Input
Amino acid sequence: MARYLVTGGAGFIGSHLVEALLVRGDDVRVVDNLSTGTRANLAAATAAARAAGASGTPSFIGGDLADLAVATAAVADMDYVLHQAAIPSVPRSVADPVSSNRANIDATLNVLVAARDAGVKRLVFAGSSSVYGDNAELPKREDMPARPLSPYALQKLVGEQYLALFTSLYALDTVSTRYFNVFGPRQDPSSPYSGVISLFVRAALDGTAPTIHGDGGQTRDFTYVANTVDGVLRAAVAPGVAGEVINVATNGRVSLNQLWNEVQRLLGTSLTPVYGPPRAGDVRDSQAAIDKASRLLGYQPIVAFDDGLRRTVEWAAGRPLPHV
Output
């Protein structure tokens, strides 16, 4: 039985990692300050794991990883660290770069120091496709130059660089996984900084027109959360990947207009969105090259976009949907 620390484990992606680890029978510890995560997410993850036959329960440490003492206590005796804790929002980082920096850089450095001192086997970092910025070339490859357009993107890039430094300088085994627009159950639609899919689904269920920033032609590599979880867990144990940066996504592209039309088709609504000005720091198009993940991790998407979107809508609606 391996011992895993999931930082930010009460959050959207973190709670899905907790669920998957419990199902495998691993020993799981969560550290979270509950600034964006919730106890309800952990309860849902534990319940889902038990429904799948697991019997374990994650232990929990409440605290801010920007406090080195919290990071040290959280990492103690762990084999692996899955560092998901962050304020994962481009617009929030633009509005409040100081708080975003504390959560995304200060906390990451503390976790790295704690992991180095505790002798963990590997630390896997939740990176972001936002580091590619406005590079027009598609798909985005890991060897492309970074062009961050927001404090959040810059902070994620600095996190990657810190991991690479700790690998080369201190021999701490690290891997950075770059996420691309992750979506799925437990993604909070109540926040203005939530992912666009959760906001679109909530708008359709409420019968209100969503706001699309820009013309809606911008595209994203929407990645169902089960794919992200699979990639991260593979990155935690794959041999020979220390210091690597690896995209975890689907190699697909869906525009916001296409997304809204598909949500409406699933829910049987007919609402015209409101178009507003583009958001500062947003990129026009995003699509991941995943050949590196395939080669190094044996990764391939396990849930297609259409299936993932249906699962997400059904979760939000609290009912199965007719196949239309």
About this structure: Residues 20 and 49 are 7 Å apart (CA to CA). The mean pLDDT is 96. The first helix runs from residue 12 to 24.
